Automatic annotation (TrEMBL):
It holds the Pfam family adh_short. Residues 9-205 form the Ketoreductase domain. This is SDR family oxidoreductase. InterPro entries: KR_dom (IPR057326), NAD(P)-bd_dom_sf (IPR036291), Peroxisomal_Beta-Oxidation (IPR051687), Sc_DH/Rdtase_CS (IPR020904), SDR_fam (IPR002347).
Length: 305
């Protein structure tokens, strides 16, 4: 096995201009990949547009001695997603890995969420992951190889306040990834998800006033974006040739494998069920296995280690 896990591979990293995307792009380059840095240069809410973040990532890769090109096309439209993959083919002659990382936030409590807030987040996260993945799929099929690494979130896997759009998109990405893994396994193509943890603009509003709060924030700040990059590189590599259809997380120095939805309890009635029977017998029997209204911080309640 090469000491560089993705040596010679061509990798697209969407949202590669900063944060987790930049960290993944840099680690891909360190491990021998040629990188397409896709980033429209928008803010966290999707507004604006500048090539500067992608240019900064490109310069960092070049300083490492790596090769990188920039794509400023949006993932959220079919035609522009095609151009992202075409950029890889035109620049490097092939495509081996797609990292679906691009994202925006439009957090609003559900009963105040506008259609625009819903659609904009779904379009970037869920539709974008489909569009870019689909644009690469035929090339993967023809060459009988390829890997997808999608970014999900514990906001979708577990739950969070004020993120119906984001949570729905991120859980949808898990189903998309599993479907890709099932449909394309015969062509040697793999598809996995990462739920990343990282200190960023999204978590920087956590209070840090008391000594206890300051100590907790200091620990959270250890979860830098680069902590997610080694897992992404591994999943892109031939070292993970038998790993597909899975959901992982990287949290500081911890790695997690997530369960996936399966039946947890059943109850049977030989005569079938009436609504009254369900109320009197069926639901009381199932209730012991109900899943609580947990949020991500409730489940990941310990400090990162």
């Amino acid at each position: 096995m090469s000491t560089q896990l993705v040596e010679g591979k061509v990798v697209i990293v969407t949202g590669g201009g900063g944060g987790i995307g930049r960290a993944i792009a840099l680690e891909m380059a360190r491990q021998g990949a040629r990188v397409v840095i896709n980033d429209i240069g928008a803010g966290l809410d999707g507004a604006g547009g500048s090539a500067t973040p992608a240019e900064e990532t490109q310069e960092l890769i070049r300083e490492l001695g790596g090769e990188a090109v920039i794509s400023t096309d949006s993932v959220s439209e079919w035609e522009s997603a095609q151009r992202i993959v075409a950029c890889a083919l035109d620049s490097f002659g092939r495509i081996d890995v797609v990292v679906n990382n691009a994202g925006i936030l439009r957090d609003t409590i559900f009963h105040k969420m506008s259609p625009e807030d819903w659609l904009s987040v779904i379009n970037v996260h869920l539709n974008g992951s489909f569009f870019v993945s689909r644009a690469a799929a035929e090339h993967f099929r023809q060459q009988q190889s390829g890997a997808y690494v999608h970014m999900t979130s514990t906001s979708g896997l577990i739950g969070n306040f004020g993120q119906a759009n984001y949570s729905a998109a991120k859980l949808g990405i898990v189903a998309l990834s599993k479907s890709i893994a099932l449909d394309m396994q015969r062509y040697g193509v793999r598809s996995n998800c990462i739920a990343p943890f990282a200190w960023s603009r999204m978590t920087s509003s956590i209070p840090a006033e008391t000594p206890e709060q300051k100590a907790r924030v200091a620990k959270l700040q250890q979860m830098t974006p680069d902590k997610n990059a080694p897992l992404a590189v591994y999943l892109a590599s031939e070292a993970a040739e038998h790993v597909t259809g899975q959901v992982f997380a990287a949290r500081h120095n911890e790695l997690f494998l997530f369960s996936q939805t399966r039946p947890v309890r059943s109850v049977h009635s030989a005569e079938g069920w009436t609504p009254q029977d369900i109320a009197e017998h069926g639901m009381p029997a199932l209730k012991a296995s109900f899943i609580g209204l947990d949020r991500s911080p409730d489940v990941f309640s310990w400090d990162p280690i």
